[in-house]
Known about the structure:
It is a single chain. Strands 1, 2, 3, 4, 5 and 6 form a six-stranded antiparallel β-sheet that branches. The chain has one domain (about 1-95). The chain is mainly beta. The N and C termini lie far apart (about 75 Å). It is elongated and about 85 Å long. About 10% of the residues lie in helices and about 30% in strands.
Amino acid sequence: xxxxxxxxxxxxxxxxxxxxxxxxxxxxxxxxxxxxxxxxxxxxxxxxxxxxxxxxxxxxxxxxxxxxxxxxxxxxxxxxxxxxxxxxxxxxxxxxxxxxxxxxxxxxxxxxxxxxxxxxxxxxxxxxxxxx
Length: 132
């Protein structure tokens, strides 16, 4: 999931860069995607360490904090290890799911229009003990 780039590819004041990729699946709309990040490790003027997530040359929020779906902006997103979405897409291309055929629903028999008045004693009959 990650590899350390060491001193190569450092931007600005980054002391190290780690590359990580994740797969995402939206639980709201079903959209799936993958994204790679360069995680830059920095030290501020007070000596405090912090990280920046960079993708496509832009600093972005951590994908682990509150990811949102690229399709519907939903926030119920499952994060998985890299390759999960692409492996499912590849399997779907090699083994397409057949489309469902129309389902025929048999007609229900005509209901009898018999009127019957139930009494509480009729319903409780099954629960009554026989005295013997």
